[in-house]
Specification:
Pfam families: DUF4387 (PF14330). The chain contains 3 helices and 4 strands, in the order E-E-H-H-E-E-H. By secondary structure, the protein is of the alpha+beta class.
Length: about 100
């Protein structure tokens, strides 16, 4: 997916949530990636080990963007936090191979 996207990034959405964004180059690329059979709550839950019920996916066709949010496994800055800015969370998502 990293090759189809203009940018794939992750960041904190407060101390308890992570947000990832897929900025697609074209409307066709967006349609491929935004398909609910490709990106859905179960896929994200499998990649990140979270409960699918907690995953939120926002599809924004006017911008060719898919935004994904889910609770952080540990609070930002806590003793077990290995990525305080959530800047590396996007890697498994960027590695997905689109259909």
């Amino acid at each position: 997916m990293g090759e189809l996207a203009l940018e794939v990034r992750s960041k904190n959405a407060g101390p308890f949530w992570v947000t990832m964004e897929l900025f697609m180059r074209t409307g066709e690329d967006y349609t491929t990636v935004a398909d609910e059979d490709f990106i859905n709550e179960q896929v994200v839950a499998g990649l990140y080990g979270v409960d699918p019920a907690t995953v939120q996916i926002f599809r924004i066709p006017a911008l060719n963007v898919v935004k994904i949010s889910f609770p952080r496994p540990v609070a930002q800055g806590s003793v077990r936090d290995r990525d305080i800015h959530a800047g590396q969370h996007h890697v498994p998502l960027a590695a997905l191979v689109p259909p």
